[in-house]
Write a structure and sequence with these properties.
Two copies of one chain form a homodimer.
Chain A lengths: L31 H15 L2 H4 L5 E5 L3 E10 L5 E2 L2 E2 H14 L4 E12 L4 H18 L2 E10 L7 E11 L15 E4 L5 H9 L17 H10 L3 E5 L5 H13 L1 E6 L7 H10 L13 E4 L4 H9 L8 E8 L3 E5 L5 E4 L12
Helix pairs in contact in A: 1-4, 3-4, 6-9
Chain lengths: ~350, ~350
């Protein structure tokens, strides 16, 4: 080749393409328009070397031998934006939190976007900006992605499936099967904020509710808790199905009875009001920034203190105890009785996450 | 607790639930119906300890220090089933192949299902069985998953986003930026089989085509190639956008000219016929079981032999060379001229993967 030729190391789309205000089918083609979308939107937003390498998979240094944690979550929430969050923050925090709940330090995420033809490009930008913000707060990088486009009506704007990888430091053994009789049950804050906030954003409540979703990355709180105690046995974020379903899962995995104290359950006034109006129980309403922890009794005080010292755990409290017995969740009611708390049977609030 | 109490270690759904012939909204609730779906379908199909632990994330032993590869792909192909494959085999092979293309040994996958209310349960079972079969062939485990359900019309039956983790053995440096002038360009087999097979399955061709999609896991072939050569510089599977787009990406990443020989491009007769009828070029039609390799010239022969020794590489051949120069793809045509081969500009075949 002649040496005068200028060697271009630039992007795949040096030629300006028509500007698109909306997602079109060609953005999912795998060709020039997909490249343009990736280079103009995803690379600048999620900037990291692994992603912008542009190969079929990100290659990442895994320092030290050991265990990794792997998780995935699909997100189809409607509406896409609601007080306190959106599908972007949800997609990042959901997977970050799943990793943190097994004691992993979340490191890398992948994001698979399924877009609807006609989605305003500004909407996508807003979702991506929100993902960037949540990822920065959680200290994770979005290192791989994929974009597909379906025809109008086949998606509600955007669906996002995220997957995540975290490192599990040596010695951490946290899982649903490790609850022991005598342990105490903690919750990091109020119940049902996410579910009711999304419901309100849909305009499905007959009254106004001043309420934000609790969406938050919880890995910082988990590190704080694990720094003060080696006796955190179970961590789980009570998302779909709510705290009732989550605790039932743990009761089955560990083969124990979990006894809750109704008066101890923290619920915000607007959530309580909405639930009473709708016939819901806040125990079954989804949370996206809360965790329940099951901890050896001697460490409960310092773990609670560690939770309360973090931004998303200020209202942490004890809500129950673990007992030997049939795998079930019981509730000591405010009027002194005991009732069984079952798992969510049908569907209460579809499309909540 | 009294010792007579029987301690149940069983699943979360000991009580029989109404049998569902179709997916209903409650299957995405996170409650009892979701648990039932997971326990009756996903656990038995994908059986492995990490998945059936039932925690928020799978915890996995990563043997030895080193690098990992991470990738994701969303799948919205229509129709769900077509000759040679279905959305299940596509979802597994797509991610397995992305990992293999950076020289990684694929190990674990995650699967995020977005289901349409009303999807026949038998259809889902068939898709899951296909995923199981492809995962077994590729030697990977599906260790984490998620299921969401959207209302009728908001999904075409099922969308699947997979993510995958692989181990990158020490010393492997394979990526789009490593093509060097003098290297040869190989292809593992015929072009365009997947795209045309899916198109035919949609009934969008005016004539009958006897053609299977080429969907296949390529990690076995890659291991065979890397066992005989340390000079495999680039591997990539030409999916959406076809071989033309893939080679343009590599030309830009490496800053080289890639020169193809038209007569050398392997295309099956029915693909050629369909493309002529439709005005398509097989160079732009998607493949799902092919790879292109860019290899140092002294190793081309043994790498080709290694490819041909595997089930999915029997028709492997050389199709071009890498030259110093402007980042572009040129084609030496059958009639002796040279033309520029550009990337796919718009969208030719939507919903192909």
């Amino acid at each position: 080749m002649s040496s005068e030729r200028i060697k271009m190391e630039g992007p795949l789309c040096p030629v300006p393409l028509p500007h698109h205000e909306q997602v079109v089918i060609g953005h999912g083609s795998g060709g020039r328009m997909t490249a343009r979308l990736i280079e103009s939107l995803f690379y600048p937003a999620f900037q990291n070397e692994a992603l912008s390498q542009g190969d079929d998979a990100a290659v990442l240094d895994m320092p030290g031998e050991g265990r990794i944690a792997l998780s995935t979550d699909g997100h189809i929430v409607t509406p896409l934006f609601f007080p306190g969050g959106d599908i972007g923050s949800l997609a990042v925090c959901g997977t970050v939190n799943d990793l943190a709940m097994v004691g992993a330090v979340p490191q890398w995420l992948t994001a698979s976007f399924i877009l609807e033809e006609g989605l305003p490009m500004d909407t996508l930008k807003q979702v991506v900006a929100s993902m960037t913000k949540s990822a920065a707060e959680a200290g994770v990088q979005i290192v791989a992605g994929d974009t597909k486009v379906a025809e109008r009506g086949k998606v509600d704007g955007v669906y996002i499936s995220t997957a995540g990888v975290g490192r599990v430091p040596a010695g951490r053994m946290i899982g649903g099967a490790h609850a022991q009789p005598g342990d105490v049950v903690l919750i990091s804050g109020t119940l049902g904020d996410h579910g009711i906030a999304v419901l309100a954003a849909r305009g499905q409540l007959a009254f106004d509710v001043e309420l934000d979703s609790d969406i938050a990355p919880l890995n910082g709180m988990v590190e704080g808790m694990l720094a003060v105690s080696v006796n955190v046995h179970v961590l789980r974020d009570p998302t779909r199905g709510g705290l009732a379903t989550t605790l039932n899962e743990i009761a089955v995995q560990s083969g124990v009875t979990i006894r809750l104290v109704e008066d101890a359950l923290p619920v915000r006034a607007p959530v309580q009001a909405a639930c009473e109006m709708l016939g819901f129980d806040p125990l079954y309403v989804a949370n996206e920034g809360k965790l329940t922890a099951i901890v050896a009794p001697q460490d409960a005080g310092k773990v609670l203190a560690a939770m309360r010292a973090t931004p998303y755990g200020k209202e942490a409290c004890q809500i129950g105890v673990v007992e030997a017995g049939h795998p079930q969740v019981l509730m000591q009611t405010a009027i002194g009785g005991t009732r069984v708390v079952d798992v969510l049977a049908g569907e209460m609030l579809p499309r909540i996450c």
